[in-house]
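For the sake of transparency, this paper describes our internal protein records without simplification. An entry from our holdings is shown next, in its original layout:
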Amino acid sequence: MLLRQKIRFWLMLFLGAALVPAVAYPAWRHLYPVEASGGWGYQVFHENIPRVSALVRDARGALFISQEFDDGQGTILQRSRDGSLKTVLSGLSKPDGLALYRDGVAVSQEGGRLPVLLLGGDQAKPLFTSDSVEGVASDGHYLYAIEDRHHGRLLRFDPQSAELVTLRDDLDEGEAIAACSDGRLFYTEKKHGWVKQWQADGQDILVQDGLNDPGFLLCSDDGLWITEDATHMARVLLLDRAGQLQVVLDHLRSVQSIIAVAPGRYLLAEQGRSRILQLDRLPADS
């Protein structure tokens, strides 16, 4: 009997020691603080926004925020300068994309075959209907959209003719699209972990691969920003104008959109922690 108890004791001790790393590693990934690379700093801009996803700021400086709930529970919030939030649009299904468009804000819905809407004032009108639209972007005239599904499409909507053109099809989980001021058009395929630049001849250019669930793109004066929609260890990346890929923020959770609000200043939605972060380029002597 004594021998059996000793064997049981040592067996339990061994199993306990083996379980510690298995439990500790997920906890470490969950709790590890965000890290900024040299030359950049961050702070919390707004907390406690469940399922925060897309961000956009209008010409008057109002910040619009989407909450990516499904089944008609999704909302668009507007944040005032004092930090208060009000709901300006509800009844949505996974509103994942926001973009300034004409005199309002374009709103996508990823929750099925649903309309892309134009929010202006207190009204929202449908622009076109598509399946599982996630990212939206505008070059000032056209509205671009990408479908987050297998065999998805990259679309272009013309407001004058109301024509919807397929620019690329058979995409695998398209997430993001960015229309740059110089005419370049970038998109991501989450399943493949890459960013491509669209080409009119159909031979799209592979810009960056090896990414961990790329979720959003932004063209800015600093270069092309890429966020990762990974549950743990997500990053905010910058492909600078010299073609070098920089990790600007690391150890994030499910990063969604990033927007520029001033030279060297950005806001980004960290859905996994229900908050918005402010990212700033630090002075050279700091």
